[in-house]
Write a structure and sequence with these properties.
Structural class: alpha/beta
Oligomer: single chain
Largest sheet: 8 strands, parallel, barrel
Helix content: 10-25%
Radius of gyration: 23 Å
Length: about 500
Amino acid sequence: MILLPLLLFVSTVNSICPSCFITRSGNVLYEQMEDGSNEVFTFSGVNIYWLGMDHNNPDVPNGDAYFTHPSNYRVDDVLMSALSMGSRVVRSFTLGISTGTGEFHAWNCGWEEGTVWSERGVTKEENFASMDYAIFRAGELGLRLIVPLTNEWNYCQGGIQDFLGWRGKSDLEGVDDNCVCNMDQHRQDTFYTDPEVVSDFKEYVSVILNHVNEYTGIAYKDDPTIMAWESGNELYFPTYDWTVNLARYIKEELGSHQLFMDGRHISVTGFNSELEDPVLLSTYQEVVDIVSDHLYPMDTDKLQEFAVQVAEYKIPFVIGEFGWNDKDADVEKFLIAMKELQSYGLLSGSLFWSMFGHAEQYGHVTHDDGFSIYWPTGPEPESFHHNNVAYRAMMKNFSDHMFYMSNREVPTTYLMSDISPVITVLECKPGQWVKVAFRGIAGGHLYKVSVDGHALGFIEDRQNEPTFIHTDVVQEGSKVEVIPYGYGDGAQYGTPSEEVVCPTSSL
């Protein structure tokens, strides 16, 4: 296997050693070090939900969406971007959720050829490929992963409605919208109690955890890169028994070495009432290692209330997502509150929703939920009203928070990929102009465009379309080059693109 170079400062990136798992004692997480010692582990990072399967346009910004397994370039690019920004942990639900065909999904959105379990009990091993690569590369970069195993929401990638539907127990027929938006929230509860459905889900979990990564040769359940298995994304009413039994199944029967995170959406449905019973709480504490929540909108009072409550349970608390782009919320206040809770030992981690990287041709992959994160800059959401300066400043605040949450100093210069940009569009008019677009690199902030060694100008890392540069230096046979520059004080320049000769057809 040949590994291509990716990082500019390779010495600053530490891969995860084979025995270095994240562990837990009481409400504190620890990182096992290669020398056998343990260090307190607190973190921040990002959600990159699409690492195993995507439904956006991977080629150009604002293009029509279609299903793909992300290319190695896209996985490398976004993971390096997350690392450069300050992430220690990435949460990605398509590394664990890959079910169905669309029959039981909202808008019939699904990819029969692309999921691991398009039907019950039938595993398509080839669809682990991008999952394998993402887990492998995360480990190489020293990034930990949190992997949910199913989804309350019946999105394109799959969720609990697939398991219900396979047993004839889904009531989504004729429903166009997402399930819990317009249905009684308890109508999905059969997922947690029906013996056949529960057995099917356990079989699926076994397929995921026992899969051996083609790049590492390690089963997912034995890979320390995976910090925790999450029972599911924003589960509304998982029963106490289901959660405890799933945790036991993963740890005891499957022999997983990782932590178990409860995916119950507590800000919507509250804690399991059984936790008020000391005996049942003790059992829960033995098998559940992390309690999480998602806060949409951001609510500092709820954040503090839940952090105190979970601490009383003597279990670590993590904010797995939060609605940072809410115009009525104070983002800075919320970030400060999370850092204060971390300093008091009441919050172990926070994860931003959600990060995207560069597109295959030029610019970035775009998504329309209003929460897209790009580092160090990119196309700002519509709510910023074309104020990219404000968006870039917010991304810098997020980055600072990531370093603060893991008790690291904020750097003055940030990591940048060592691969070169790739010129993908080039047209030239001798003596008049150059039209250029290029595939960007992780950590790049500005790109200098040169013609025959003459610098024409800088392009910010947020191309929405090919850029015209007016110049009289371009001639027939001119060579065009793009040089990336990193972010921060005294930003370094990276590996130049290959020189491309102006095409004859455009002269």
